[in-house]
Amino acid sequence: MPKIETLRKYPPLGSLFRRVTETYKSPEGAKLTRDMNLIIPIYAIHHDPDIYEDPETFNPDRFEPEEVRQRHRCSFLPFGDGPRNCIGLRFGLLQTKIGLVALLSRFVFEASSTTPRSIRFARKSFTLTPDGGLWLNKVCSLTAEGIKMQLPLGSNSKCNHQVCFK
């Protein structure tokens, strides 16, 4: 569930763009006419306090089955919804899982002094990308007979690296 909460806080796209295929009138009286362009503000929906209590707080428990059942099905849209959702949804989730397993099974990471306390997004990027990247310190780890032992290494060690995810 941390992966899902991360997608809520930081969806790949801030908005989706769609075209109305047939005229529709909502129960509230709003009229959408055929060929009208729509912008679906994913980031705003995912950070709406009426949908997610304290939306800026990272809380994976929001995606417990009972919590999910209480929300509208379109309150979580990191990959869109319906027949025209993102074709790469399953691939993206699988790629994320494989990447995290590969990294976290070999290394221990900690925040760098250059890690921003709050994320600002790059203005010239189509996807929501952190401006300047996310910096972490990589601390080496060892695996011996299935037991992972962490070696906290000083900044002078050859095994202490800084990596940036962009």
From TrEMBL:
It comes from the Eukaryota. Gene3D superfamilies: Cytochrome P450 (1.10.630.10). Its cofactor is heme. It holds the Pfam family p450. GO terms for molecular function: heme binding; iron ion binding; monooxygenase activity; oxidoreductase activity, acting on paired donors, with incorporation or reduction of molecular oxygen. It is found in: Endoplasmic reticulum membrane; Microsome membrane. Heme binds at residue 86. It is a peripheral membrane protein. Its main location: endoplasmic reticulum. One of its GO terms (cellular component) is endoplasmic reticulum membrane. This is Cytochrome P450. Signal peptide: none annotated. Coiled coil: none annotated. Belongs to the cytochrome P450 family. May be involved in the metabolism of insect hormones and in the breakdown of synthetic insecticides. Keywords: Endoplasmic reticulum, Heme, Iron, Membrane, Metal-binding, Microsome, Monooxygenase, Oxidoreductase. The keyword Ion transport does not apply.
